[in-house]
Structure formats: C-alpha cells, structure tokens
Amino acid sequence: MSPRSHEFMEQARDRAKLAQEALASGHREGAVSAAYYAMLYAARAALSEHDEYARRHGGAWGLFHRRFVATGAFDQHLHALAQQAQEAREAGDYEAIAPDPGEAKRYVEGAADFVAAVEKMLEVS
Taking the C-alpha atoms of 98, 104, 110 and 116 in order, what is their torsion angle to the nearest 10 degrees? Predict the structure, then answer.
C-alpha cells in the first residue's frame, strides 16, 4: 500500500473508532459524522492506490463508484450505506437533525464494515 493510501486508512480506522466511542457516549450526531468520514477516508485510500483523487466528497464518491462499485469490486450495499450516512451527517451538521439511535448504530457498524471491506480489497489487489 502506498504511503498516502496508508495515511488515508489510518484516518479511516481512527474515525471508525471515534464513531464507536461517540455512539457509546450518546453523541449520535458525532457518531454519524465520524462514521461517514471513516468511509470517505477508506474510499480515498482505495482511490489513492490507483492514483485517483478528488477535491470534493461528491467527486471522490463518483470515482469510487465507477472504479469499484460499478465493476463489482466493492459491495454496492456498503456504498449505498455510505451515501445514506453522508445525507444523515449533512442533516446533523447543517440542519441540526439528530439521527435516531438505531440509525446512528447502523452507520457506525456500517463504517466498520466499509473500512474492513476496503482493507480486504486493498490486500487482494
């Protein structure tokens, strides 16, 4: 794994851990935000391995979808969960809409699954 991809994966793991800690302490908005960023950093790590970068979240997700989801290299359900987490994060950050506990838990658990799936994908390639 390239040094830059390694840095992105470290950030992904750190955010996934932070998401779990925030959820455990009752900070649902923070948990969802950290979970989303865990997935984004993992996606950026995968893209970095192919020398692909985007300046914005939407660009990163578009590249990730084209390279990994559309080709069958990555689980489309985990990708869809990341998109849902982005919407929930934005609702919390910009509209002060708190996710319900079950929704927050789903994103936190999904972030751990997303990060693990990217790690596995990077090991194989």
Answer: 100
R_g over Cα of the chain = 14
Q: How many domains does the chain have?
A: 1
For the record, the structure tokens of 44 come out as 């950026």
Q: What is the extent of the structural domain holding 87?
A: 3-124
Express each pLDDT in 67-99 by its tens digit: 999 999 999 999 999 999 999 999 988 988 889
101-124 and 28-48 helices, crossing angle to 10°: 20
Sign of CA dihedral 108, 110, 112, 115: negative
CA angle 37, 43, 45 (to 5 degrees): 105
Q: What's 30's domain CATH number?
A: 1.20.120.330
Full-model pTM: 0.95
Per-residue pLDDT tens over the stretch 28-45: 999 999 999 999 999 999
